[in-house]
Amino acid sequence: MQRARFSIWLIALIALVAAGAVWLAALRARDADHSGGVHDAGPAASLAAPALVRWGSGEAGLVWQPGSERGALAYTSLEDDASGSARTLLTNIAPLQWRAAPGAAAQLHLAWLEAGGRLRTALVDSQHKLLRGPIDIGAARPDSFALVPGPDGGTEILWIDAFSGELLAAPIDAAGRPFPTPAALRTGVSQFAAAADRRGRLWIAAVTAAPTGAPVVEVMMRQGDGTSPSLVARTPLGVPATALRGSLALGFDATTAYVAWTTAGSANPDRETAHVLALNLEAREDSAPQASVIQIPEWDPGDTQNAPHGSWLALRGNHGAADLHGLAFTAGQQDTALAVTSRWTPVGWQPVIVRFRDGVADAYWPIQAHLPHPPALALLVLDTSRWTAAWTGLFRAQPRLFLAHGSGDGLGASERASG
Questions:
Q1: Contact criterion met (CB below 8 Å) for 139 and 70
Q2: CA torsion, ordered 406, 409, 410, 415, to nearest 10 deg
Q3: Does the pTM of the predicted model rise above 0.70?
Q4: At residue 177, what are phi and psi to the nearest 5 degrees?
Q5: Cβ atoms of residues 110 and 61 within 8 Å
Q6: Residue 147 and residue 157: Cα distance in Å, rounded?
Q7: In the chain, what is the greatest distance between 2 CA atoms, to the nearest angstrom?
Q8: Following DSSP, what letter does each residue of 345-391 receive, concatenated?
């Protein structure tokens, strides 16, 4: 009798454990919504955005802070879909934000901002060995530095000086050595973005003050020979500087450079509107490029019930402006420009990829994930048909790294309606 009771108790216990496992899996799927190619890569040390990067050798990966590495930066290859272990790159540092850029074939440039406002750089190799650094570059404001790939395995670091407000730039050679005296590119800069096009030209977008005191967005371009940048375009910000949210973003497709910024009102500070300055790159060298300010049209209200599986959804130009939070372009110049943002839905914040072609935002791809807070997102184009997005978000009040992949249609493929 006792043995029979024990068997019944054991069967009940096993059933209870199994039911609990199913319930936990359902709860996790509901909270993190990992369907549609979203992968949980593990606990993170903070909610800072990861840095996606492609090495000169072609390997794609990301630099981030695993949950056990708060005083370090680590690297995970995307060649195995981030299922491999994170390899530590740097220790005994205190990074708040970081950037990565490819160096020579088997090297990677890193830059990070520490808690005390110091900006530092380092060079590592494909075996995750520290080759040079950390090197103290100077004092920078939060969210105010960029690392732009350069020729011959070098890179260039740009930042806003924490004391003077000047936009500074310093080349870093292939051996990881910064030029000792940075160049002052512009004074009175509150925000900026920088990127290089296929021709090796450095583009810089900066928020400055016009002579009247009203904020403006200036776009500057420097030829690949390293001469001083020249002013390409200037447009009013359109709102007080206090309404500006996040950072400027800069991206390219085959014909157009895009400068984006987001603004928000006081009623819903997380609900932002994107303003995008589109500059025609096909203008003659001796003339200013044609410029126009465009918007990202509203999302299709029916797409959350009919989510895409392997295709883009059309953005209708006759709709109003979309509500979103933040915007970041993928690095480099491709035939189509992709940017990543997040939008509010009744079940949480959802990452969205937006496609730009020939001067307009024409399509988008909702990622099947929903988060309690708008995440800090990064995006990398792997080839002509694949992209990867990465972000850190909360699961049960703990930061975790998430990845999403898209492939199959081609980045320039035609879109479909969601209805």
A1: no
A2: -100
A3: yes
A4: -100, 115
A5: no
A6: 5
A7: 97
A8: ETTEEEEEEEEEETTEEEEEEE-S--BSSPPEEEEEEEETTEEEEEE
Residues 202 and 196: their CA atoms lie apart, in Å, by 5
CA distance 351 to 344: 9
The token pair that represents 68 in the structure block? 């056990």
Is the peptide bond preceding residue 134 cis, with omega within 30 degrees of 0?
yes
pLDDT tens for each residue of 235-263: 887 766 666 666 788 999 888 999 988 87
By CB atoms closer than 10 A (0-12, 13-18, 19+), residue 8 is exposed
157 burial level (CB within 10 Å; 0-12, 13-18, 19+) = buried
Q: Find out whether 63 and 100 touch, Cβ atoms under 8 Å.
A: yes
301 contacts 313 by C-beta, under 8 angstroms: no
For 59-84, the pLDDT digits (tens) are 888 999 988 767 889 998 887 555 55
374: Cβ contacts below 8 Å, ≥ 6 apart: 270, 325, 326, 342, 344, 349
Per the CB < 8 A criterion, the answer to whether 130 and 115 are in contact is no
- Read off φ and ψ for residue 364, nearest 5 degrees: -150, 160
C-beta separation of 75 from 86 below 8 A: yes
Torsion-angle region of residue 152: left (phi > 0), alpha (psi -120 to 50) or beta?
A: left
**415 contacts 409 by C-beta, under 8 angstroms:** no
Sheet holding 398-407, edge to edge: 38-43, 398-407, 386-395, 376-383
Q: Are 377 and 387 in contact (CB under 8 A)?
A: no
In the block, residue with structure tokens 């056990």 = 68
Q: Which long-range contacts (CB under 8 A, 24 or more apart) does 286-291 make?
A: 288/232, 288/233, 289/232, 289/233, 289/257, 291/233, 291/235
